[in-house]
Design goal:
mainly alpha; about 0% strand
Length: about 100
């Protein structure tokens, strides 16, 4: 789509700009969720997320986005740990 923004046909340029706006809005909504799922997949892990974000956003912004995914994973783990830790779910002691 980025190449077609420079298309000499004004109709094509307008359509591409609208498509890009829609794509960006959907991407913003599901981007983090998809990246977390990929990072949790044992075949890919966080390295693929870092690589893909570097290609999509460039190295600086890609690193920031990859860090957001990492921070999200840590926050999810901490919530899980707090919810399922032995101190939060006291077990009855054996007799």
């Amino acid at each position: 789509m980025q190449e077609e923004v420079l298309n000499p046909n004004p109709f094509i340029r307008v359509v591409v700009v609208r498509m890009q706006m829609k794509f960006d809005s959907y991407w913003e909504e599901c981007n983090l969720i998809l990246a977390v799922v990929v990072a949790l997949d044992p075949r890919y892990k966080l390295k693929l997320v870092e690589f893909a974000y570097g290609k999509i956003y460039g190295l600086d912004e890609g690193s920031l986005n990859a860090r957001l995914v990492y921070d999200t994973l840590v926050a999810l783990f901490n919530k899980y740990k707090a919810h399922y830790s032995p101190s939060s779910n006291p077990q009855p002691s054996p007799l």
